[in-house]
Amino acid sequence: MKTTIVKVTMATIITGSTLLTGVTVGAATKQEKKVTTQYQTLKAGMTIEQAAKVLYGKTYKKQLMKKNGMTIFKKQPFTTSDTLGQKSTAYSFSEKYEVMPLDVTTLIFMTKKNGSVYRLTSKSLDFLRLSSTGLRESKMKLVKGKTIKKGMTEKQLDAVLSGKGLGEWMGLDSIDMSSIQSKKELEAGLGIKSEVKTYVFPTSTKQKKIVMLDYDFKKKTYVVSTQTSL
Predict the structure, then answer these.
(1) If you ran DSSP here, which 8-state letter would residue 163 be given?
(2) Mean pLDDT of 146-158
């Protein structure tokens, strides 16, 4: 599931990045703050109708329809599946601008096995920016001679960056499938849950690094899981 989200959002990013070379903009925009609030308000286990209320407000019913007795969005899903009676559907939402969408929210809904109600099991939010990479980049830079290593905590990552803090992230991902998992699976400790943040950090050599941090629920902190040089 996590891999699916990353592939979808990164494909969107790559498509747009070639259109935005060499231009930069400032801090988070009003639109970015709006969709971030929406992302935070969307909770695991929400039905499509409940999610629509968050996304569309009072006009949410106009965005919905019934199909085979199930409530879905009128907009076209970018993927659907039905595996052994467990259905899934995924939608991408974006704000349209002159050149391309600058924010992409991806929501994946699933049913319980042989169920008829879709529930939110995965969400992601990615920001595209007028930058050399086409992504929202952090204002923090990797200090010359320092390296980013797998397993670093946010505090350790902060120590190898300029300034204080990690700056602005370019993407958030969250998976929580507890609403569609069986009681037996949950009691056995097999609940599927993850939280991921992605940053783009400039370096002293003018490279850019995409760094993903996974939330460690035991340590209660994010730790570096992967990094890729651009």
Answers:
(1) S
(2) 96
φ, ψ dihedrals at 180, nearest 5°: -120, 5
Neighbours of 133 (CB within 10 A): 19
Coil, strand or helix at 42: coil
- State the pTM of this model: 0.85
The structure tokens listed for 193 are 């849950």
- Tens of pLDDT, residue by residue over 127-145, are 988 778 889 999 999 999 9
Say how many C-beta atoms besides its own lie within 10 A of residue 15's C-beta. 12
Q: pLDDT tens, 176-195?
A: 999 999 899 999 988 899 99
Count of alpha carbons within 13 Å of 202, Cβ hemisphere only?
Answer: 18
Q: Which of 65, 75, 72 minimizes the C-alpha distance to 88?
A: 72
Please list, in sequence order, all residues whose beta carbon lies within 8 angstroms of the beta carbon of residue 184, skipping any fewer than 6 positions away: none
Q: Indicate the range of 56-65, 151-160, 182-191, 196-205 predicted with least confidence.
A: 182-191
Q: Please, which residues bridge with residue 115 across strands?
A: none
**C-alpha R_g of the chain:** 19
Query: Are 96 and 85 a contacting pair, CB within 8 Å?
Result: no
Burial of 73 (0-12, 13-18, 19+ CB in 10 A): buried
**Which residue shows structure tokens 């968050």?**
54
> 19 falls in which pLDDT band (50, 70, 90)?
very low
CA–CA distance, 147 with 9 (Å, rounded to integer): 26
The C-alpha atoms of residue 216 and residue 60 are separated, in whole angstroms, by 35
